[in-house]
Amino acid sequence: MKKIKIGLFGFGTVGQGIYQVIRRATNAHASIERICVRNLSKQREIQTDKSLLTDNPADILDDPNINLIVEVVDDPEASYRFVTEAIRRGIPVVSGSKAMIARHLPELIELQRKHSTALLYDASSCGSIPVIRNLEEYYDNDLLLEVKGILNGSSNYILSRVFDHGEPYSDALSRAQQLGFAESDPSFDIEGFDSLYKLIIITVHALGVYIAPENIFTYGISSISDADIRYAREKSMKIKLVAQVAKVSADRFTMFVMPEFVTPSRYIYSVDDEYNGVVIRGECYDRQFMFGKGAGSLPTASSILSDVMARRHGYRYEYKKMDYVDRPEYTTDVTLKIYMRHPGQSFLKDIPFSRITEQYTSDGYNYVIGEISLSDLIGIRNRLSDPRIFIANFPQFFLHLDD
Amino acid sequence: MKKIKIGLFGFGTVGQGIYQVIRRATNAHASIERICVRNLSKQREIQTDKSLLTDNPADILDDPNINLIVEVVDDPEASYRFVTEAIRRGIPVVSGSKAMIARHLPELIELQRKHSTALLYDASSCGSIPVIRNLEEYYDNDLLLEVKGILNGSSNYILSRVFDHGEPYSDALSRAQQLGFAESDPSFDIEGFDSLYKLIIITVHALGVYIAPENIFTYGISSISDADIRYAREKSMKIKLVAQVAKVSADRFTMFVMPEFVTPSRYIYSVDDEYNGVVIRGECYDRQFMFGKGAGSLPTASSILSDVMARRHGYRYEYKKMDYVDRPEYTTDVTLKIYMRHPGQSFLKDIPFSRITEQYTSDGYNYVIGEISLSDLIGIRNRLSDPRIFIANFPQFFLHLDD
To answer: What is the Cα–Cα distance from A201 to A135, expressed in whole angstroms?
Structure first.
């Protein structure tokens, strides 16, 4: 079995973690041969042999000695260039760039097939939890009903600080950034896009269907207020940022990212701090729960290591489910029950609730609880970005085991 | 890709579940061609075409049309005969027979290599949770420190009934048997042997080392008393039957099955009823938790289906870690802190505690808490089978992340 010789793109938090992990994993028989960075003179915590570093991608891509690219660049466009160029040259790639992968997955699958090489990206979803690999290899059957979970470590860290420790939102956010959980652009985490990208990748491996980001309702936690938190607390619930994909009938499924009220009996209730937790629900096995560190340098790096080792044994995703004849179709024609904090009755007039079941109005705080279709939520999504609005979903099973 | 044509050995609870699951999983392109049973005239819940059933193993083994054997026979000796004969003939096998596999694994690995065929058995450990596959494929690195969990659904169901519902032990046991969680011989579950067999299989895939059952300390829950339960409750703990394998230094590991006191902050605290939960702890990723149904007909059958599907894509265990040069060595030279209920001081005299930290004596209930080595526990294991004795372990980390 040949030694894995890695060309590493990116030497930030995750890149430096990979450098440490590869050195510890002596049985991996892998070594980092070259590291491509944007800025050679930047100060880094990890000191390496200077000759390892380069700012010229060709020093990796043209090196016949390098047989695996690991790409963890914090810039989707650069990431796209490096990854596609490597695949075109037949060099296998391990990538952690969820935004890039989620945007370009159909093309990346096509490229892998055309050039007979592999792109692995388990680290792109839920850090150290092997969600993608398990959906691809293990839950490869018709029984899967739902994948749902907390996929973003930093927003969950923030909600934990706010909910369990009573910290103000802004303090919690800056603390998450200090600890290296939050991306350089925090809106990526806070507005739900990080969860969205992971959900898109998960859906490809869960159901064999790719849905582009712009077609998926995504709502984050940036406008959450003390009133919303108090509301949830009074009812012994937490608010979590939840991503979910679920079959709604035998041949249709839906997906979205939205804050959700979580009661203590749910598995994800106790997923706190920077942890991620994913519930996989299916016929016959009911619910399985996978839980682990979803963010941070070393957890992500350990997931990259697993993909590196898998390459040593020639592993690649087969995207089997994309070839299934009866893949389910995406629908937004589903009714959700949501909580909406709003600035007053006049705002509510144009919100197409099909039914309102509760209303509360006071001097400083108004909310309604009602039913609304997901497609209507998509229709008004620009208006929902008003900071005076916050919405959260009450969970439901879209498809019961006995349906 | 060829259709999977299954010869099924065993048509009890799990076998009938497999029959149902295979029919539901239309994308699996698998069918059951023949079912070998011991007793053709036995009444079964699931009605099948009579021509499917046979009591002659040769009707499956000699059928050139059958390209996969699924073996779920509730008799380790018969299971061994069918599985080894199939492998010798080059027919791949999916098996759920943990006792047989745990006893014969070195030979079964050798046979697979010699005859270039595959034996998959993810269903043998933790029912529907993909523990084996993940240890084999994903945690394939030097970072793994510990695998620990609740591996037996029926003893956990019983402890849940006793602990959370205040049921007497015997009622809980018979209810578990009614529900089909407990094996036909309940001592298999209750005395820890089921957990032991799973732990042996897990250890092969976690660390690449096989340890025979007789060399591993195994202690069950059959002698648990109201006093023990009260003791745990007063301290806000539960008692769970826990199996664990853990590195104690860079080059040594230990393993055992024993009741353990579990505090609410532990992941396995909330693993109740027939569920299983496994914590995988490693450098860099800290702890990962996998949770799901560990017993019952359909959960086990869904795990068998995953192995069947994996065979469709030619998957086999490579047992990579067995080839590692620096595999850790098994040791029982570790100190445990245990609770021991005992019949009186005279019994205690011959128990080689290295240190006793607490003692309690009353008319009907005596216990000590103290330190004792695992090898000494193995030395006195016959004396511990006295029903007046019950022991439980206080958990510890054998190897810390920074050691």
So the answer is: 11
